[in-house]
Amino acid sequence: MTTSQEELLPGTRRALLHRIAVAQAEGRAPSLVAAVVRGGRTVWEGARTSVDGHGPDGNVQYRIGSITKTFTAVLVMRLRDEGLLDLRDPLEKHVAGTGAGEATVAELLAHTSGLAAESPGLWWERTPGALRPELADVLGGQPFLHPVGRRFHYSNPGYTMLGALVEKLRGAPWEEVLRREVLAPLGLDRTSTHPQAPHAGGWAVHPWADVMLPEPSEDLGRMAAAGQLWSTTADLARFAVFLMNGDDRVLSAETVREMHTPAAPPGIEDLADGASYGLGMQIQFRDGRLLVGHSGSLPGFLANLTISVADDIAAVVLANCTSGPMLSVVGADLVRIVAEAEPTVPEPWRPMSEADSPALELAGQWYWGTHGFALRLTADGLASLEPLSGAGRRSRFRFNGDGTWTGLEGYFQGELLRAVLRPDGSVDHLDLGSFVFTRQPYDEGSAVPGGVDPQGWRGIG
């Protein structure tokens, strides 16, 4: 990945610097470092620090806390793609005797397993992992707080179970598997389970006085898969590019998109906040923009990775304080600043390479009952079906090669669209999961279920 500060306009760069400066000053962070990615590479970097004459750069490690969970999720999805597990498998099928085995792999990934948020006993983030040498020590005697699969409840022990799953199926420690299968292929040389110089120290800032206290940095042991990693803005920028586009050496673009898809039923408060959770990735709707990524925290450190796939922009923000700046808000703001100040210039419109006559016959206006829809064929080989006016069900469709199309999103995701022909070979109507779309509202010349009143349309009187 190359770095070019010149790709953003001076006004945009100043707005980005101003945002992190406000975050560092108002959040009273000893240091804060950030980067913005667009078009597959870093286009801006910035830092603020309380130390005169010295500032962190993209090579300085910070602890990234729960962003580690996204790395663990990538390892699990690799196992799924290789056929070594199914996301519907109960944990017990692969890792027996944990006491949490009824939860499925997907439920663990999406935090719907019903497991407790934290490990019982001493505060696990500030005590040695050696105090919890076995999975039973992580889970405790009553690991479930909620019915399995019924609600979203963030669980650090759940990701400990996923780390154990990786180790069981790979026959190697989680750290070793991560380095071999993700860090090395993506060139994340400055991401590690233990700090490597240069790295920031973790600090607690007194809430009512401008003084600081150093935080301990513990090895999380069994819970490493939930939050052990240290990384840099440069490495996380590369990771963000992967999470936007995929990389066949690690995960395909299709699987990465699957990780972005909501997989947990949101609670009332989540709906109000526009937040959800996918397979190892946080999802939020902010300022009219869909954002994916993850935040992280451990005593002494805060971290955030925010991605707008539609804008092809990502932001990384790291700070070395236990609390203070809301980095999820800062990350979303950095994405917004670039997206609004310098919106992506769309590629030129180009026609299809060749027209498909049978498919072309389907293009145009259709009616589901009295609801008007337009079916359009696009140069990417897809078809789109959307309401002629107002809100309503819409989807793109992929051609299957046998005369049918499969819905890719929304209400019609996975549903089949097919043209039903008359004896003379002309199109009578479209069948979409049994819904009938006709060229005219309740077209009396088409096979409308329930029939059409023979007296036709009428007024009152």
Task: Provide structural commentary.
The protein has 461 residues and is α+β, with helices and mostly antiparallel strands. Helices cover 26% and strands 22% of the residues. The protein has twelve helices and 19 strands. The strands form four sheets. Strands 12-13-14-15-16-17-18-19 form an eight-stranded antiparallel barrel. Strands 2-1-11-10-9-8-7 form a seven-stranded antiparallel beta sheet, sandwiched between helices. A two-stranded antiparallel ribbon has the order 3-6. Helix 2 (67-81) packs across helix 6 (174-186). It is globular, with a radius of gyration of 26 Å. The N and C termini lie far apart (73 Å).
Fraction of residues in H or I helices: 25-40%
The strand line-up of the biggest sheet is 12-13-14-15-16-17-18-19
SS class: alpha+beta
- Average pLDDT works out at 94
Q: Write down the Rg.
A: 26 Å
What percent of residues are in strands?
A: 15-25%
pLDDT below 50 for ≥5 consecutive residues: which ranges? 1-5
Number of helices: 12
Strand count: 19
**Could you tell me how far the N terminus lies from the C terminus, measured between alpha carbons in angstroms?**
73 Å
Q: How many strands, which pairing sense, and closed or not: the largest β-sheet?
A: 8 strands, antiparallel, barrel
Shape descriptor: globular
